[in-house]
Amino acid sequence: MLSSFFWIKIRQMPDNLDKRFDSQRENEIYAAWEKSGYFSPDKCLKDKITEKDAEPFSISLPPPNVTGTLHMGHAAMLVIEDIMVRFNRMRGKKTLWLPGTDHAAIATQSKVEKMIYESEKKTRFDLGREEFLNRVSKFARDSHDTIVNQIKKMGASVDWSREAFTLDEKRTEAVATAFKKMYDLGLIYRGERIVNWDPKMQTTVSDDEIEWKEEAVPFYYIKYGPFTIATARPETKFGDKYVVMHPDDSRYKNYKDGEKLEVEWINGPITATVVKDKAIDMEFGSGVMTITPWHDTTDFDIAERHNLDKEQIIDLEGKLLPIAGIFSGLHIKKARLEIIEKLKEKELLVKVDEKYIHRVAVNSRGGGVIEPQILRQWFVAVNKEFTLPVSKMKSVKSGEKTTLKKLMKIAVESGEIDIIPEHFQKIYFHWIDNLRDWCISRQIWYGHRIPVWYKNEEIKIGASPKEKGWEQDPDTLDTWFSSGLWTFSTLGWPEETADLKTFHPTSVLETGYDIIFFWVARMILMSTCLLGEAPFKKVYLHGLVRDAKGRKMSKSLGNGIDPLDMIEKYGADATRLSLVIGTGAGSDTRLSEDKVKAYRNFTTKIWNVARFAQMNKPENYNQEEAEKFLTGEDKDALEHLASFKKEITAHFEKFEFHLAGEKAYAYFWHTFADIIIEEMKPRLKGDDAALKNSAFFLIETILLECLKMLHPFMPFVTEDIYQSFFKKESSSPFLMVKKW
Question: Which residue among 165, 244, 369, 567 has its CA within the 20 to 30 Å range from the CA of 283?
Answer without folding.
Answer: 369
